[in-house]
Design a protein that fits this description.
Blueprint lengths: L2 H13 L3 H13 L4 H21 L5 H20 L5 H5 L3 E6 L7 H12 L3 E4 L6 H11 L3 E5 L7 H12 L7 E5 L5 H7 L3 E2 L3 H11 L5
Parallel strand pairs: 1-2, 1-3, 3-4, 4-5
Helix pairs in contact: 1-2, 1-3, 1-4, 2-4, 3-4, 4-6, 6-10, 7-8
């Protein structure tokens, strides 16, 4: 089997949501001396991007995305172990802290965004729902995050997104962390109004915007 075939096998494992198949394909690729970085970037990443595009076109549903993400994780665990020390960390696209703002108990949309970001190679730390502004800030500081993402699914909780931006300003941390906002009542106009760095109308758009903010557009 050629190196290109090993890479294609990884891509197909993602597209078929085959967790064990992805793990075995990764193990076989490592044994065949396929460059782990190439295997990830030309196999896994391509496959997961196609899954994201299908989800965006409503051709597949959330359970498919979950399985594809799990398949990618299984393969990544094998391939990262085969990389030179420090190389795996370089492949990470950035660190993101995400959560639903204080007073808001809706998290389905936020969960989809978090999952898509993980699949795209971001290191994602999900704080869950009903997250206070201080918790966002402290976690971002602890991790040295690149982006803080705050979701709001109710008009009444949307002001907490503004509070997050203002708190970062107050603490002198605004330039240290990029802020993205999203959710049902959240618009680009609102994001611009409160001084957020980005907004995504859905999970696919959120990944693209996050990548662009970090200068690593897909």
């Amino acid at each position: 089997m050629s190196k290109a075939q090993h890479v294609e096998r990884l891509r197909q494992a993602i597209l078929s949501y085959d967790i064990e198949g992805a793990r075995k394909a990764a193990e076989t690729a490592v044994k065949a001396k396929v460059d782990p970085v190439e295997a990830i970037e030309k196999g896994l990443a391509v496959g997961i991007r196609e899954v994201g595009e299908k989800f965006h076109r409503y051709e597949i549903f959330l359970p498919h995305v979950v399985l594809a993400a799990d398949a990618m994780t299984a393969a990544m665990e094998v391939l990262e172990k085969a990389m030179p020390k420090g190389k795996a960390k370089q492949l990470r696209r950035g660190t993101i802290v995400i959560g639903t703002v204080e007073g808001d108990l809706h998290d389905v949309g936020k969960n989809v965004v978090a999952m898509m970001l993980k699949s795209a190679g971001f290191d994602v730390h999900d704080l869950g729902k009903d997250v206070k502004t201080d918790a966002f800030v402290e976690k971002a500081k602890e991790l040295g995050a690149d982006i803080i993402m705050a979701s709001s699914l109710m008009t009444t909780t949307r002001p907490y997104q503004r509070e997050l931006v203002e708190e970062l300003d107050r603490l002198g941390l605004r330039k240290r962390f990029r802020v993205m906002v999203g959710g049902g009542p959240v618009t680009k106009e609102w994001a611009d109004q409160i001084g957020a760095d980005g907004w995504g109308k859905d999970a696919t758009e959120a990944v693209k915007v996050a990548s662009a903010l970090l200068g690593r557009a897909r």
